[in-house]
Amino acid sequence: MENIYIKDNDNRLIDYMSDLRGDVANLINSNICRMQEKGRNITINSADEYNRDLIASTGYEEKQGLYDILILEYNQKYPNKLLQRWPSHR
After folding, report:
1. How does strand 13-20 pair with strand 61-62?
2. What value does the mean pLDDT take over residues 3-18?
3. Which top-rank group of organisms is this from (predicted)?
4. Which of 14, 17, 39, 48 could pair with 60 as two cysteines, CB 3.0-4.6 Å apart?
């Protein structure tokens, strides 16, 4: 299982996502890369665990659901190149 921080550097928002399966973490990373290619100033970092002091030290506002917000924003802006939010299970 993987843990990550997503930072929206344009809006100074940060979110922590924990216990992600590898396929989920890979899809999130791929989606963040595609958003970066379109000019969004977003970063993704792996994390050992949730760290309130680390979040406070960034000066960013913690925003739960930030990944979902970013996907929605991207998909509204690029309806012909929709990002898949979560891996499909067959």
Report:
1. parallel
2. 96
3. Bacteria
4. 14
